[in-house]
Amino acid sequence: MFEDRMAAGLQLAGQLAELPMTDPVVLALPRGGVPVALPIAQTLQAPLDLILIRKIGMPSNPELAAGALAEGSNPIFNGALLQATGMKPEDFAPQVAQAREENAARRLRYLQGHPPVELEGRTAVVVDDGIATGATFMAAHFWLKDRKPAKVILAVPVAPPEAVDELRPLVDTLVCLLSPSEFWAVGAHYRNFTQTSDAEVTAALAAAPQAGAGKERTWH
């Protein structure tokens, strides 16, 4: 049980500081991943950026994720769900267009429109407040591949064992502090799991080291 997202991030930071990294960049999945990522970025003296991903809901049930769209990438769909419902990716054109607009709006709101930090040849440390199914990270995985980081580390406070097993082969290192066999929800493992506000995201990004912080430094 974690006190809150910041406390979970401090625990993760202690483990991540022991890992070899080259010119690390910390990438949070907003909004909940940002307060977890801030103490990690501060400990590693690495810039903090965002991976902006929006869920693509079923037209008949927007809460049911048919796929996800990462900023600047093509959408990733749940093939089994589409096959079961008889739908095709092109059927989601309105939802995909809306997701693109929302990702662009969030970059403007949180980062004043600054482009993503360059990742090629660097260690990308991807952080969220927990993983339930891994669907969001699957979209992040393809986004990352296009940006050619030297190494990808996925760091989360809590995730079910099956999600850990599914995602571990997709990254160079996976750090998960808690992986209970009886997993109900990410929030069940925090005493304080109130929703992270836009203001908190903006404040955390402002408090993080700036983009050149980790340059020319290799962790061994």
Task: Quickly list its features.
single chain, 220 residues, alpha/beta, 5-stranded parallel sheet, 7 helices, 10 strands, 36% helix, 22% strand, globular, disordered C terminus
Structural notes for this entry:
This protein is an alpha/beta fold and about 220 residues long. The chain contains 7 helices and 10 strands. Helix 1 packs parallel to helix 2 (about 35-45).
How do the helices and strands line up, and which of them pair or pack?
Elements: H1 5-16, E1 21-22, E2 25-28, H2 33-44, E3 48-50, E4 53-58, E5 61-70, E6 76-77, H3 79-85, H4 93-111, E7 123-127, H5 135-147, E8 151-158, H6 161-167, E9 173-178, H7 198-207, E10 218-219
Parallel strand pairs: 2-3, 2-7, 7-8, 8-9
Antiparallel strand pairs: 1-10, 4-5, 5-6
Helix pairs in contact: 1-2
Short précis:
This protein has about 220 residues and is an alpha/beta fold. About 35% of the residues lie in helices and about 20% in strands.
Shape: globular
Low-confidence stretches: 213-220
Strand order of the largest sheet: 3-2-7-8-9
> Proportion of β residues?
15-25%
Order of helices and strands: HEEHEEEEHHEHEHEHE
